[in-house]
Amino acid sequence: SFFLNIRSTSLGCITWILARCLPGVKLLYNTVPARIITRPMLELLPEGALLIDVASVPGGVDRDAAAELNTRVIHALSLPGKVAPLTAAENMLSVLYNIIREKEEEAIGHA
Q1: pLDDT tens digits along 21-55
Q2: What's the sign of the alpha-carbon dihedral 54, 43, 46, 20?
Q3: Among 1, 42, 68, 90, which is 20 to 30 Å from 98 by CA?
Q4: Which of 29, 6, 15, 24 is nearest to 95 (CA)?
Q5: Average pLDDT in the 91-104 region?
Q6: If you compute the radius of gyration of the chain from its CA atoms, what whole number of angstroms results?
Q7: Is 61 helix (H, G, I), strand (E, B) or coil?
Q8: What pTM did the predictor assign?
Q9: Distance (Å, rounded) from C-alpha 93 to C-alpha 2?
């Protein structure tokens, strides 16, 4: 399991990266407000994976395909921005940095 951080404005690039990485992802946290997690992507996820979609409307997960594939999805569109937009952005950044740091420390410990 690893953290995947995608910083790209090209949906084609994001889709290609996701297709290569999804088989190892157990938790996918989406903030991209465009449907990039489609059926083919969902089919690549390992059994038991969890998707959390907090993107703005319309979200980024094909909910119908996820339901058909029995993939767990927490659909909380725009939640951070609705609750506290500035604080949400600061907290998300902090959490992401902490996750990256923890994963790097794990990787160093296993090297």
Answers
A1: 888 888 888 888 888 888 998 999 999 999 999 88
A2: negative
A3: 42
A4: 29
A5: 84
A6: 14
A7: strand
A8: 0.62
A9: 17
Q: How far apart are CA 94 and CA 80, in angstroms?
A: 14
Mean pLDDT of 81-100: 81
**What are the tokens at 55?**
């993107």
Burial letters 11-43, b for 16+ CB under 10 A, else e: eeebbeebeeebeebeebbbebbebbbeeebbe
pLDDT above 90 (res 20): no
Give the strand order in the sheet containing 72-75. 27-30, 50-53, 72-75
Q: Give the pLDDT score at 4.
A: 47
- Amino acid letter, residue 102: E
Given a contact cutoff of 8 angstroms between Cβ atoms, the answer to whether 3 and 29 are in contact is: no
